[in-house]
Amino acid sequence: MSDRRQFRDLDSPERAREAIRSLDLTPETETVPLDDARHRVLAERIDARLDVPGFDRASVDGYAVRARDTFGADEADPVVLDHIGTVHAGAEPDVEVREGTCAEISTGAVMPPGADAVVMVERTDEVDAGIAIRTSVAPGDRVMVAGADVAAGSRALGPGTLLTPREIGLLSALGVDEVPVRGKPTVGIVSTGDELVRPGEDLHSEAGQIYDVNSYTIAAGVEEAGGEAVLYPHAGDDYDEMERLLVEAADECDLVLSSGSTSASAVDVIYRVIESEGELLLHGVSVKPGKPMLVGRLEESAYVGLPGYPVSALTIFRTFVAPAIRSAAGLPVPRTATVEGRMAVRERYAEGRTRLMPAGLVETDEGTLVYPVDKGSGATTSLVEADGVVEVDADTDYLAEGERVTVQLFSPDVRAPTLLGVGEDDPALSRLLDRLERPRYLDVGSRQGRRRLRDGVPDVAVVSGPSDRDVDAVALGGWTREWGLVVPAGNPDGVDGLADLVDRDLRFVDRAADSGLRASLDTELDRLADARGVDRRDLIDAIDGYDLTVKGFESPARKVIGGAADVGLGLRATADTLDCGFVPLGTESVRVLANPDRTNKPGVEALRSALDTHLDDALVGLSGFDS
Amino acid sequence: MSDRRQFRDLDSPERAREAIRSLDLTPETETVPLDDARHRVLAERIDARLDVPGFDRASVDGYAVRARDTFGADEADPVVLDHIGTVHAGAEPDVEVREGTCAEISTGAVMPPGADAVVMVERTDEVDAGIAIRTSVAPGDRVMVAGADVAAGSRALGPGTLLTPREIGLLSALGVDEVPVRGKPTVGIVSTGDELVRPGEDLHSEAGQIYDVNSYTIAAGVEEAGGEAVLYPHAGDDYDEMERLLVEAADECDLVLSSGSTSASAVDVIYRVIESEGELLLHGVSVKPGKPMLVGRLEESAYVGLPGYPVSALTIFRTFVAPAIRSAAGLPVPRTATVEGRMAVRERYAEGRTRLMPAGLVETDEGTLVYPVDKGSGATTSLVEADGVVEVDADTDYLAEGERVTVQLFSPDVRAPTLLGVGEDDPALSRLLDRLERPRYLDVGSRQGRRRLRDGVPDVAVVSGPSDRDVDAVALGGWTREWGLVVPAGNPDGVDGLADLVDRDLRFVDRAADSGLRASLDTELDRLADARGVDRRDLIDAIDGYDLTVKGFESPARKVIGGAADVGLGLRATADTLDCGFVPLGTESVRVLANPDRTNKPGVEALRSALDTHLDDALVGLSGFDS
């Protein structure tokens, strides 16, 4: 690999911010109809071009009078005035109020000539001789004079004003139906890499294809930051095609982002195109993740190259690019851009460069706890497990437990989950979670679940298998599930029990060691080993695939269906759902355990209530499940 | 007027909320393309239908090996393996890794058959005999196995999830390109009242027409709350037309809002249509403002009638309707829906019904101050002077200064202004304000400005005229402006000075008593009275129009141009801008005075800096202005 691609001379994050600031993304201003102006930003000051109201108007329903005619009138001694006519709202007055007369008037109607005050209807009576006025009024009473609300020539709204419903209202009052607003920066997204396929297209896993995550993610981020995203057709690693696409994007957009591939060859192609058709201002930033970030110009446009891993791409976008788009659009930093919290755990870090640590949030009585999420695996699940990133200085060695940190949220719409659960994956649990508002559940397995609950980060852990290792916690409830061996429909190999795995030449697929189901399997293996008077290890060594572990509760069954295995560890419910055969080995309990400090948290209460009320519903159709 | 329209039997706000909850606004769910799914809400749970990744993939660039071949290798004693080929990302492997061999592999590429680990390139060297492996690896090292990120069959996202960029990312990874989301409730807006004209259309002020403020304001509020707003053509007060429009809206929408007119006849027409074509659940709510609110059904749709005054309409919408729309759309309450603060002043209230008090926000070192804004005048400027409403219980007699209150913001996008200024209106000041981010300036006149600054609510007051009444404050700077009498171009009446107003039959237009310009005029009148040895009151009585006051600094000149007056109080700059004649009477100073406790507030600093740096720019082209 070339020296360049190894990014030996890394720039500081501050230098990267400067480089992006130095690029001008600001589009031309534009004029939009008033009903499209919401959440846009005024490009220039709006002065009132007319008085509001445009005429002296009655503020109440009542009678327009000459104030001096009412002097001395009160409840006991009303003045009676001649009723000479009526003025309706939206109509030109056809009467003149002279001495001793009055005109009925509606709220908002034009004051008739001669009248200088309005008496509200509640202070009047119709009498034979006319209208009895039971109060005295001063000139101007209950009248809004022309321009009293907004005077023509006055400053109504300043440049840079974000238009919310109330500003739309003021513009309406001024009769403004076309609004000069800041343009939305157009952001072209070019995704690269031979291995990427757009969602909705056919995926060839055997050829190493994966769905393109970054294009739509970043496009959504662009729109959220106030830009207009343009997705270009996916490009492979071919230089000419990439050049054509990047140049086309540069012609059409204020900013071009390349994103997608983690492969060195795709990065290399882009690198060469930018060097040839534009200028690289910096290549490589001293941050983790995001080292391979590129900043430059491409023809007349700005260019930023994002890293390939989804969390890294979103992190770099959130940290460096979104603020530039927002600023070019004239939008303020949202109030919900960040959240303050305290570290839930101690987090070591000593790589000598800035770290953008993906972090999740947990709400507690003592405020928001922040825990690190991604370990740089490139997992897309980290995307939804993290709520944002904590920027850790290059010279920080560790973040102490309880230390105050600021989380830059991935979106102003992101909120801490109402419940953080960890542990076993289970179909009944999934249904119960569906009844909660905004829960987060990480299926890390029962063993990890217990460990994390003990460490105090999650609100609840859901565990299955033997209960003798359960931690000190508050049991919220649970259910049982029948487990065993999933085999092809009709059980063609005639599998009868665990012994067949040991004694026969069957390809097995196991669950991960952290799984409660795996612990149940191991317990049964112990029993078999005892019965045979051998060590469990001997049995395990005889099972082809005992160490071949997969993640989800359905995964072994799917391997069996796909023909990659003869037998998988799983649930009767899964076998039934996927039309497989099933050899029962036992029934295990699933326990929902709550952090003792969080039992009053609304999300935990909601889960307890779902367990109390909806467990039977959640078990419907799940064969082998029981409450 | 009928008893009904006086709403004698008012329902409680809680009853109003219940009534609205009882109406079902929830639309059908719909399916949208992934790139339109941002900020939508998942209608159902999304389970993974495939493993992510779909194959065992290399996590780094390096060499795919059989882990057992590397046992014992280290920097000092590498193992050398045969290099049998290369696997690129996005390509099917065409090699098999057998004992003693390795294959070069890119990040993200498919693990070739036989290999069970990857050695990162940094731990290898090309040597003559092949590839020197300088570390030992275990099976699974640097490999992400199929389904390790997301396992097929697992719960990916729950129903009710708000889709932000990260969720879009996870859906992309799962290949989901069409997303089942909650429908947006369709909200029809029918505006009523003969006096209303849509922005952009011609306005006939003489016939009492005003622009329709509520339709676009409420439409923007509907969209912000997650609904789809449909504006129906404006209707007058005619029963048949109104009935036709309301029924059409009910046929097409989940919710119909009527809004606009303050006139009793328009309200009456609507009332009768709803009673005939639907059902009124409640008419009149014991809140201020909003008493005339209606809630009911119209055919199969929900119906709410909003009050006519813009602030009242937005207040009732914000308090009762927006939450219902949001809930029907499945959207959570935004984190920025409310702000906590302390009352800046004591506010009395004792009307025995709930008050929704429009309130403005000021940021201080000690937190957010909240002050009441609208006094029920129906002014549209109150819309932008208020940031939200404080709900005050019916049995609360007053809010104490310093009392904690919650402000329900008019929009989640509303933020407290960076600067709250009050006082004189002035064209140079308008330009300086244009240089600040998000200032709020209320042109209440110099006298009111001084009073409010003394009461401690605003950050700065801008005052003109005599300085002997100025309050104790920190002077940030100022300028001078020439003032006098604005007359028609060419000065056809040959006006020469103040004495002409007293001695001749000229129609004069004055500024309001709170204006600094008016104080300057009064000082000159005192001087003239002294010179003549008479009382100022005698001079004033001789001026036709001394008490005819208008609001803006350009307003008198505009009256002169319109022919409604011969002479107006004003500035030389205004006379020049509007091509009028001008008779100078003096030069007055304009002073920018800061609240002594707020001089370090960023908005105040920004104003001081604008005064220091940009004052000369602000005065360019303003004749008679000097720094």
TrEMBL record, chains A, B:
Keywords: Molybdenum cofactor biosynthesis
Xref: SMART domains: MoCF_biosynth
Domain of life: Archaea
Keyword match Isomerase: no
Residue ranges occupied by any MoaB/Mog domain in the UniProt entry: 188-327
GO biological process, one term: Mo-molybdopterin cofactor biosynthetic process
Pathway where it operates: Cofactor biosynthesis; molybdopterin biosynthesis
Full protein name: Molybdopterin biosynthesis protein
